[in-house]
């Protein structure tokens, strides 16, 4: 999809090229109000310069990194005209900032693949995720490109029981991160409302087994999936019917994507929705090798095992943090928990479990019953300022620093 057509789909009139400056200035959109964000992006798409979507909650370090990156990219040699002009933020949790290059073609490919996979001609969505995050942005794009209804809604209102009315003759889609799903499952009225949706997409972070089974018992039409900013969101998904029949993977590849796992267990995604490199660089390759570990079953369904760079090497043994987190969650002792590896003179790395401070004090002896050997945390640390953002992403770099500095309690 060319840029002028995308602008029209977003309700803006494309700007004529004649008389425009040779190198149009960049537009930066850092807005957390949905209506303001949508209007600003539509205007920017209708223009001719590069468009940067930024997180309005960035700190000083991330804003400085962005300014440096923008200055370094004034010359964009190698970028094809009309391609890779939409810069979506990726990463940044450790203070760094990267932008994946997207455009009308990559966005349209992702929308087309989504519709083909779920058998939808028109997408209507309630949007509770921030539009500056790829999951929130793509929820709007699916509606805009298919002529559907996009209904932005405050997450604060939703969790307090103020829910939007859904047109009875329409099918509806909702995107949530796991912690949002957990909060809604605690409210019977919200569960009834959730059953009104055709598809409830869950992503943005690991979904623990207890949460998945609670959603299944509530007969919610979950679509567990896998995707990232670099692929314009979802590239695999479990259809709700498969989920309710007992399947628990991240599903099969959407029609626009090819997902493979190499001999080292690393997931690679190829296809038309893959970004055109990271700004200011440019790449013609439509393939992205992730840092995620996974396996594909005989039917091509993907199960993600975790991040390759998150594996903890403790005393010569390799520990996957996700497995330890699942066991700790299953104990029922934590409202939230995360496991990281911190430097240790004796073990090389020590397994440290972190949890939000201020709530009920967990029974640590009960929490570790299912864990033994290298998987048992050496320490538990209560964190006062829990570093999980509105999209459910945990800042593990910050957590490692806090875990290393904290005294904690022995496991």
Question: Can you put this structure into words, describing what you see?
Answer:
The protein is an alpha/beta fold. The protein has two domains: 308 residues, 3-Layer(aba) Sandwich (Rossmann fold); 100 residues, GMP Synthetase, Chain A, domain 3 (2-Layer Sandwich), CATH 3.30.300.30. It has 13 helices and 21 strands. α1 runs antiparallel to α2 and α4 crosses α5. The longest helix has 15 residues.
Give a topology summary.
Layout (H helix, E strand, L loop, with lengths): L2 H7 L17 E3 L4 H13 L4 E3 L6 H13 L13 E5 L7 E5 L1 H15 L6 E3 L6 H13 L3 E3 L2 H5 L13 E4 L1 H8 L2 H7 L4 E4 L6 H9 L4 E7 L4 E5 L2 H5 L7 E2 L3 E5 L4 E6 L15 E10 L5 E6 L4 E3 L2 E3 L1 H10 L7 E7 L3 E9 L7 H4 L11 E5 L12 H10 L3 E2 L1
Parallel strand pairs: 1-2, 2-3, 5-6, 5-7, 7-8, 8-9, 19-20
Antiparallel strand pairs: 3-4, 9-10, 10-11, 12-13, 13-14, 14-15, 16-17, 18-19, 20-21
The percent range for strand residues is 15-25%
CATH architecture of the largest domain: 3-Layer(aba) Sandwich
Tertiary shape: globular
> Got a strand count?
21
């Amino acid at each position: 999809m060319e840029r002028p057509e995308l602008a029209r789909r977003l309700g803006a009139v494309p700007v004529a090229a004649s008389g425009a400056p040779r190198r149009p200035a960049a537009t930066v959109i850092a807005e957390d109000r949905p209506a303001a964000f949508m209007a600003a992006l539509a205007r920017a798409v209708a223009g001719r310069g590069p468009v940067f979507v930024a997180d309005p909650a960035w700190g000083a370090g991330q804003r400085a990194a962005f300014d440096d990156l923008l200055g370094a990219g004034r010359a964009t040699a190698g970028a094809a005209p009309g391609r890779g002009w939409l810069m979506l933020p990726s990463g940044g949790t450790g203070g760094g900032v990267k932008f994946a290059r997207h455009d009308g073609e990559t966005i349209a490919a992702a929308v087309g693949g989504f519709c083909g996979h779920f058998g939808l001609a028109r997408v209507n969505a309630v949007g509770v995720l921030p539009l500056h995050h790829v999951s929130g942005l793509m929820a709007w794009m699916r509606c805009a490109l298919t002529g559907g209804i996009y209904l932005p809604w405050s997450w604060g209102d939703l969790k307090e029981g103020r829910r939007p009315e859904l047109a009875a003759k329409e099918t509806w889609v909702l995107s949530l991160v796991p912690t949002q799903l957990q909060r809604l499952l605690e409210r019977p009225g919200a569960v009834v409302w959730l059953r009104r949706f055709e598809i409830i997409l869950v992503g943005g972070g690991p979904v623990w087994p207890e949460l998945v089974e609670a959603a299944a018992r509530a007969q919610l039409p979950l679509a567990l999936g896998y995707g990232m900013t670099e692929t314009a969101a979802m590239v695999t998904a479990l259809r709700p019917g498969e989920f309710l029949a007992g399947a628990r993977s991240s599903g099969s590849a959407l029609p626009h994507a090819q997902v493979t796992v190499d001999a080292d267990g690393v997931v690679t995604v190829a296809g038309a929705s893959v970004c055109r490199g990271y700004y200011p660089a440019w790449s013609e390759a439509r393939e992205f090798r992730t840092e995620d570990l996974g396996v594909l079953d005989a039917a091509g369904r993907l199960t993600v095992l975790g991040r390759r760079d998150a594996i903890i090497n403790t005393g010569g043994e390799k520990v996957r943090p996700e497995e330890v987190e699942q066991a700790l969650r299953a104990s029922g002792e934590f409202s939230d928990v995360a496991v990281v590896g911190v430097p240790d003179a004796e073990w090389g790395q020590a397994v440290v479990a972190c949890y939000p401070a201020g709530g009920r004090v967990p029974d640590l002896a009960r929490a570790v019953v299912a864990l033994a050997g290298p998987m048992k945390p050496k320490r538990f640390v209560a964190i006062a300022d829990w570093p999980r953002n509105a999209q459910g992403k945990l800042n593990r770099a910050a957590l490692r620093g806090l875990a290393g500095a904290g005294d904690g309690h022995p496991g």
